[in-house]
Amino acid sequence: METHSSSSSSSSSFSTLQSYLKALAQTPRRLARRAPSVSSSYEELSRVKARSGSDMQRTLRWFDLVGLGIGGMVGAGVFVTTGRASRLYAGPAIVVSYAIAGLCALLSAFCYTEFAVHMPVAGGAFSYLRITFGEFAAFLTGANLITEYVMSNAAVSRGLTSYMGAAMGISTTKWRFILPLLPNGFNEIDLVAPAIVLILTLVICYSTRESSVVNMILTTLHILFIAFLILMGLWKGDWNNFTHPGNPQHPSGFFPYGASGVFNGAAMVYLSYIGYDAVSTMAEEVRDPVKDIPIGVSGSVIIVTILYCLMAASMSMLLPYDMIDVEAPFSAAFSGRSELVARVIGVGASFGILTSLLVAMLGQARYMCVIGRSNVVPAWFARVHPKTSTPVNASAFLGIFTAAIALFTDLNILLNLVSIGTLFVFYMVSNAVIYRRYVMVGTTKPWPTLSFLCLFSLTSTIFTLVWHFTPPGKPKPFLLGACVVIAISILQVFHCMVPQARKPAFWGVPFMPWLPSISIFLNVFLLGSLDGPSYVRFGFFSALAVLVYVLYSVHASFDAEIDGSMGQKNVEIVEESKQSEEEEDPSQKV
Q1: Rounded Cα gap, residues 129 and 138, in angstroms
Q2: Cβ within 8 Å of residue 250, ≥6 positions away
Q3: Are 306 and 119 in contact (CB under 8 A)?
Q4: What is the DSSP letter of 381?
Q5: pLDDT score at 261
Q6: CB 14 within 8 Å of CB 569
Q7: Residue 413 and residue 411: Cα distance in Å, rounded?
Q8: 73 contacts 304 by C-beta, under 8 angstroms
Q9: Is residue 120 reached through a cis peptide bond, with omega within 30 degrees of 0 on the bond before it?
Q10: Which of 107, 289, 481, 527 has a CA between 20 and 30 Å from the CA of residue 128?
Q11: How far apart are CA 71 and CA 304, in angstroms?
């Protein structure tokens, strides 16, 4: 019933050209009404969720989430970023860089976990931001996430065919051919990559449980490969490589480039942890969210951190840091020692890329499903199939779209691993968890919390700019220290002056607001380490998302509200529902 009402509601603005032009003339008023409008946890768990028709089945346990988290994170990134970060920045201290990056990922994971336990729906960051900062902020971040998912999945699938070819000793030219009519970069046709994407699309459409089983099998094989890689490195490596470079003229010691090198290395390898956020989109399909989600999300990040540190130690033992291959560190490290090991690396990397692709495709479909529930995209995407209990429409559409891009677009995996949109969402979720703890609409004023978040982000941005662009010298440490002192002072004043408006009933981020604030700072720092083209892409896709919102989404959302399907008849209802969250509606206790 909800789906039918939402689809009919869109006819008032889109039924005729005259109706649409009239709606465009009312855009400013509709933006003012809909863009800042917030939903509530109760709405997301009841009326909004019901728009999908059938429910998603709760079949996943904590070990499924751990497997999905590991599969989503351990992909091609670790095989690429490790060599570059070690050779150019951290040296043997790349092990410490991975530990620091793992801590950063764990802090962001805590923020995701608090929301996912409190509101176990499939929307992930989109839903969290929608109940905190409103519809427009949620749509902007959700659109960027889906765009990056699709583009990076297309690139990863083409990269997978390259790794498979290397593992089998077959050149990719065997299944790729050139169409001279198409422009360069779009003329190399790869038939295997879209086939892989379509097969995985069928798997995730069929059943989430079966998808988890497939992921668990592939992830287990990948972990066995990583264990083999670590043991071979420890066996064939030399402990002296931790402190002695290949060229005596290069800096020596475990920290050849000092603390700055370690943190710059952490900023680079942090991209290898991206993927755990997709686990939060599975919250609606978890049997016991209160128990399983914290273990699944945090446990996967901790396990991956240990694996990454051991892999980095293994690589550092095999070769001095100044002899590590920047592009393919592990393959190059073993190339002269064992052809079998080099071949196994290709097979293992293929398993890793396949699991990360599977988890990312699961995540992107659930994001699109919940965005469809909110009526800012056609409600057709929100449909959950009654037999498979999966978002078939969203899965099929995004799978076909991804396969089409993978067919002819020669995307560079490295560029797509630099997920500026994902880091931006991590930053937004860290802000949202603080805002939600300290602000309750109708009870507390938002300005103290908003002022703190803006000042803290500004201080973090200044620190990042000084770190990256100020030349070495005496002023630099002073400026960095001043930024740290100011940030801590702002945080301490906020902590002492502003009381928390609500306490989480089940699970919450500890040491509030310190840990989320550290997460904000680290995400700003990591955003500052990305290159210019990343910001150009982010700006382009953000502008495109704003255009879609202004020309379509705000009008569809407004029509749905008028028809009553949004469940927001006035601001007072929203305020009352947000206050009632303290009592925790029974539908959340699953």
Answers
A1: 5
A2: 256, 322
A3: no
A4: G
A5: 87
A6: no
A7: 6
A8: yes
A9: no
A10: 527
A11: 10
- Are 134 and 39 within 8 A, CB to CB? no
pLDDT in tens, 103-133: 988 999 999 999 999 888 887 889 899 999 9
Would you put residue 250 in left (φ > 0), alpha (ψ -120 to 50) or beta? beta
Q: From CA 355, how far away is CA 213, in angstroms rounded?
A: 11
Instruction: Please tell me the distance from the alpha carbon of residue 129 to that of residue 136, in angstroms, as a whole number.
Output: 9
Residue with tokens 């749905």: 560
Alpha-carbon distance 21 to 248, whole Å? 72
Question: Does residue 25 carry a pLDDT above 50?
Answer: yes
Point out the least confidently predicted range of 201-210, 407-416, 534-543: 407-416
Asked if 118 contacts 506 with a C-beta cutoff of 8 angstroms, the reply is yes
> What distance lies between CA 433 and its chain's CA centroid?
16
Task: Please spell the DSSP secondary structure of 165-180, one letter per residue.
Answer: HHHHT--GGGTEEE-T
Let me know: does 392 contact 54? Beta carbons within 8 Å.
no
- Sequence-distant contacts of 325-329: CB under 8 A, at least 24 apart: 325/83, 326/83, 326/84, 326/87, 326/88, 327/80, 327/83, 327/84, 328/79, 328/80, 328/83, 329/79, 329/82, 329/83, 329/86, 329/87
| pLDDT recorded at residue 582 | 44
* Token duo for residue 250: 């290069």
CA distance 463 to 530: 15
- Rounded to whole angstroms, how far apart are CA atoms 135 and 557? 9
pLDDT at 568: 44
Q: Is 188 helix (H, G, I), strand (E, B) or coil?
A: strand
Write down how long the chain is: 590
- For the record, the structure tokens of 443 come out as 């009870």
Q: Catalogue all structural domains in the chain, each as residue range(s) with its CATH number.
A: 58-444+501-550 (1.20.1740.10)
305 vs 432: CA distance, rounded Å:
25
What is the C-alpha separation between 570 and 46, in angstroms, rounded? 18
**Given phi > 0 = left and psi -120 to 50 = alpha, else beta, which region is 567?**
left
Q: Determine the pLDDT at residue 571.
A: 43
Q: How far apart are CA 532 and CA 576, in angstroms?
A: 45
What stretches of 319-419 show up as alpha helix (H) in DSSP? 329-335, 339-373, 392-408, 413-417
pLDDT band at 534 (very low <50, low <70, confident <90, very high): confident
Q: What is the pLDDT of residue 515?
A: 94
Please give the C-alpha separations between residue 154 and each of 159, 165, 510, in angstroms, as whole numbers: 9, 17, 38
DSSP for 21-52? Answer: HHHHHTHHHHHHHHTT----HHHHHTHHHHTT
Query: In 10 A of CB 571, how many CB atoms?
Result: 12
Task: Tell me the one-letter amino acid at 537.
Answer: R
Q: Are 262 and 268 in contact (CB under 8 A)?
A: no
DSSP state of 552: I
Q: How far apart are CA 47 and CA 411, in angstroms?
A: 40
Angle at which helices 77-85 and 339-373 cross, to 10°: 110
* Percent helix, strand and coil across the chain, each to the nearest 5: 75, 0, 25
Q: Per-residue pLDDT for 10 more than 80?
A: no
Determine the 3-state secondary structure of 53 from DSSP.
strand
